[in-house]
Write a structure and sequence with these properties.
With 69 residues, the chain is α+β, with helices and mostly antiparallel strands. Helix content is 43%, strand content 17%. The termini are far apart.
Amino acid sequence: MNSISPDSVLKLFRQNAFLDLRKLGYQLGVDTASSMLTAVIGNLERNGKIRRIGGKGRHTLFVLATFEG
């Protein structure tokens, strides 16, 4: 299993306007049901770095919420 960090997830969001959970998991090389992916996404949402904009389950869409470099 690949290691997932908040920085690696944010890097993907900076390259794309928005991502759904399936595409995010694919680009990171992990299953969408990965507990590590769920934890990182949850932490980024709580910290206000990304926002959920729609969808359910694997089709959940997220967008980068800040414009930090």
